[in-house]
Predict the structure.
Amino acid sequence: MKIYIGCDHAAYDEKLVVIEHLKSKEIEVEDCGPFNGERCDYPDYASAVAKNVRDTGERGILLCGSGIGVSIVANRYKKVSAALCRSTTDAELSRSHNNSNILCVGARINTIEEIKAMVDVWLTTEFSGGRHAERVAMFTDLGE
């Protein structure tokens, strides 16, 4: 498994912790930036992660202050289902019911321990398919 990860300045420190958390689980990580904590524009990094997920079929994690901005940007890309999660229940359902391929979290909303717990649940939850696959298929190719 390979995870693409990106953030903005508000979540830079949390991104570094999540990267180490993923590596401790022997998960390959590609950091799409930023590479310092200076002010930056989250659409650049959300787009980089979304494009990699779209093009490779791997999954991604995006962080910003609220998680909202990066989720909006990522969901503009076809083949991307970015889920804004605030709890482990959200993370689990985003995978099992919605087959999300990008987890979005807010560094100003959740603690780093909550973020790591969401990451763990999201990584280990499989898509349940069935009736959920039918619903996901209804919106997979929406948009221009």
About this structure: The chain has a mean pLDDT of 94. The first strand starts at residue 2 and ends at 6.
